């Protein structure tokens, strides 16, 4: 059924690999390969598809006709759920944090255009969104629904992220991904072959808490935590949704060399970090490193951005 849904939606799997050409990396003998999960689907790309796929299948198999999920007003996850519901014929409800603001921003305009019904939760209610009280209220209002958690990270999603690494046929030493909730890293590490390691790059300032969170997610999804991964917390460039001129210069240079403008909220911070670690020898010379391009993130990129420094 997994393949049926992917085929029905025109999803491109496995996502392609692209070698980065760089004189500097050549000197180090390092092979840097991009795993282009952003090319999976125009509306459901990157880790959004990886996380939503098993949840869509579960919702359809369970006979649900509605997906309900949570997110902030600029949430790319809300966009992705709206797009997914539209594509597979499920109704969608987006429970948005905070008050309604008219006119709707582009993220919510997109969601509504894909048929998503929006409901606004005050901040206290939003904090309690997992409680029986709030969920009962939502069920009274919207009837039966399949609940997709905020950010799409649940055990099904984490298990499906293990496919990212399992799809790669050539040997590699290290696979890297940006981290928000840690769900993508938790799954990817579980799919690693012996001898390879995974490295997450926190897009948030103060990302040390993610180590416990990734362990917890692995225990929930796989019944055990793995020891084959770590998280770099020093490449947040001021914090989530913040950037520096140095980061944006890197984005421009990478686009000049590689021809692709990568989003900076998650992906460019990771790529900067990967190349920096290679340059400083933290990643051993002559390694083969995979960097997972977890998606474009236009909503955050254009509407929720601020400069740091
Ligand atoms: C492009 C992109 N990369 C990475 C992440 C973070 O993934 P995770 O929450 O699984 O750590 C996100 C967040 O959803 C994202 O939009």
TrEMBL record:
The keyword Hydrolase applies. Keywords: Hydrolase, Pyridoxal phosphate. Its EC number is 3.5.99.7. The modification N6-(pyridoxal phosphate)lysine is found at residue 48. Residues 18-295 form the Tryptophan synthase beta chain-like PALP domain. It is an enzyme of class 3 (hydrolase). The active site is at 75 (nucleophile). It comes from the Bacteria. GO terms for molecular function: 1-aminocyclopropane-1-carboxylate deaminase activity; D-cysteine desulfhydrase activity. One of its GO terms (biological process) is alpha-amino acid metabolic process. Belongs to the ACC deaminase/D-cysteine desulfhydrase family. This is 1-aminocyclopropane-1-carboxylate deaminase. It comes from Microlunatus parietis.
């Amino acid at each position: 059924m997994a393949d049926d849904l992917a085929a029905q939606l025109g999803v491109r799997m496995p996502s392609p690999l692209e070698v980065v050409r760089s004189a500097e990396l050549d000197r180090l003998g390092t092979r840097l390969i991009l795993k282009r999960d952003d090319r999976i689907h125009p509306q459901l790309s990157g880790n959004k598809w990886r996380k939503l796929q098993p949840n869509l299948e579960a919702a359809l198999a369970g006979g649900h006709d509605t997906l309900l999920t949570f997110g902030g007003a600029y949430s790319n996850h809300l966009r992705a759920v709206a797009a997914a519901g539209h594509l597979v014929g499920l109704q969608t409800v987006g429970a948005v944090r905070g008050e309604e603001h008219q006119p709707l921003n582009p993220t919510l305009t997109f969601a509504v255009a894909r048929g998503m019904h929006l409901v606004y939760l005050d901040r206290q209610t939003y904090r309690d969104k997992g409680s029986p009280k709030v969920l009962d209220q939502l069920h009274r209002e919207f009837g039966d629904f399949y609940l997709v958690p905020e950010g799409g990270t649940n055990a099904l999603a984490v298990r499906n992220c293990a496919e990212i690494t399992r799809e790669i046929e050539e040997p590699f030493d290290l696979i890297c991904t940006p981290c928000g909730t840690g769900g993508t890293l938790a799954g990817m590490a579980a799919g690693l072959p012996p001898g390879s390691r995974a490295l997450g790059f926190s897009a948030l300032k103060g990302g040390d808490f993610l180590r416990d969170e990734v362990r917890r997610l692995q225990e929930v999804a796989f019944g055990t935590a793995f020891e084959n991964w770590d998280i770099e917390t020093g490449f947040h460039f001021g914090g989530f949704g913040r950037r520096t001129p140095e980061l944006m210069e890197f984005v421009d240079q990478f686009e000049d060399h590689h021809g692709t403008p990568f989003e900076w909220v998650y992906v460019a911070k990771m790529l900067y970090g990967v190349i920096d670690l290679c340059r400083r020898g933290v990643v051993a010379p002559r390694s083969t490193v995979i960097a997972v391009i977890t998606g474009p993130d236009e909503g955050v990129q254009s509407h929720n951005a601020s400069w740091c420094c």
